[in-house]
Amino acid sequence: MISKTPQPPYYAVIFSSLRTEGDNGYCEMAEKMIELAKVQDGFLGAESARNEIGITVSYWKDAGSILKWREHAEHSIARIYGREKWYTAFKVRIALVERDYGFER
Amino acid sequence: MISKTPQPPYYAVIFSSLRTEGDNGYCEMAEKMIELAKVQDGFLGAESARNEIGITVSYWKDAGSILKWREHAEHSIARIYGREKWYTAFKVRIALVERDYGFER
Lengths: 105, 105
Known about the structure:
Chains A, B: One of its GO terms (molecular function) is monooxygenase activity. The structure is a homodimer. Chain A is an alpha+beta fold. Chain A has one domain: Alpha-Beta Plaits, CATH 3.30.70. Chain A contains 3 helices and 4 strands. Chain A has helices at residues 26-38, 63-71, 73-86; strands spanning 10-19, 43-50, 54-60, 87-104. In chain A, helix 1 (26-38) packs antiparallel against helix 3 (73-86). The longest helix of chain A is centred in the C-terminal third of the chain and has 14 residues, at 73-86. The first copy, chain A, starts with 9 loop residues before the first strand and ends with a strand. The model of chain A has no long low-confidence stretch (mean pLDDT 97). The interface between A and B is large, with 41 and 41 residues. Strand 4 of chain A pairs antiparallel with strand 4 (87-104) of chain B, so a sheet runs across the interface.
């Protein structure tokens, strides 16, 4: 569940969001988008959790693969719905992962 | 709740974790650490959510302020407990936020 990303450098897209009330088709689309992201060139993994705030971090090989995913037709439609229906606020941060380390029992 | 970070560039520390069973003093320490982080030089904000996976993203002015926080005495003790008691696995990724954008209703 913690993404098995390669040695840095690679990119992270940190998506932080606050949801509107109700599902309004959100869950179905969220699952669809993650399945679609997985088959994109340069996709390295994603992690997601939500309590009051939702945080989804997706990992990408380079800035070009993020841009292509941003412009993907179905993802573009989902992004429009996001502003119209699903989120009261969100922030997207595009970040270059410079180093990482981990621990496993 | 979504951190009001300044114009990029700034740093994000993405902490992804899987917890052990039980609290074992975790919640108290987690709250203490966030209060302590808030008063560190260069701290810009933090966002946190947990379901099966926990994701905490903290934002920092520069790499130096991250390093100082890493070496902070109380935080160092918490980090040791993390490996001993609280986590079955974690990953820390240090990333330079190059651009961001957002939406608010």
